[in-house]
């Protein structure tokens, strides 16, 4: 769908230089999704792996050292990621993925950020490999739902609660209280939306 060089706005790598590759297509159907125009893959042009990687290297200035490539979407695991991840590794990028976990894993990924959704629940194989769990808090019941997934992720998995953007003002005070009482969780806010970067 699109690719762009920016700052990772969320989670464990928040603040790090990151090249985002957003793959079109998603059938999970989150009512509050902030990239609904990604859902229809056919509405966007297609690019070869070679084109994506040469654009990436060009935009980061030719050297991928210390730059994370973030594969997102849409739901990126709807595709087989073998060729894309091989190419990005050859180019020198660390590869992170943002996923709902609803589809089977493919490719060689260094960091999996799992953001499970009620609308289409994640597969056990993705939960078992997650380095980061990022739960979107849209209403009060989402705290209990977050704990259900925290209990299934590996013990070293980083745990984040992130407010749904339109509910941020309302949910943040509850989230801060919750984290103070359950300090295994950390807060993630979408900083790119505050600093106006993509
Ligand atoms: C747009 S999704 C694409 C990747 C994948 N489909 C997923 O949901 O993880 C990227 C991240 O943005 C989060 N997100 C989407 N809409 C949001 C919103 N309105 N407020 C806060 N986070 C949101 C998702 O939960 C996910 O962690
Ligand atoms: N800056 C920035 N950080 C992000 N982290 C996850 C994003 C996503 O849409 O996957 C995202 C995004 O769209 N922009
Ligand atoms: S899974 Fe991700 S891309 Fe798909 S609708 Fe939900 S937030 Fe949007
Ligand atoms: Mg985003």
From TrEMBL:
Binding site for S-adenosyl-L-methionine: 32-34, 74, 115-117
GO molecular function, one term: magnesium ion binding
Residues the entry annotates as binding [4Fe-4S] cluster: 26, 30, 33
Entry keywords, A to Z: 4Fe-4S, Iron, Iron-sulfur, Lyase, Magnesium, Metal-binding, Queuosine biosynthesis, S-adenosyl-L-methionine
UniProt cofactor(s): [4Fe-4S] cluster; S-adenosyl-L-methionine; Mg(2+)
HAMAP family assigned to the protein according to its UniProt record, in alphabetical order: QueE
Protein name: 7-carboxy-7-deazaguanine synthase
Source species of the chain: Arachidicoccus soli
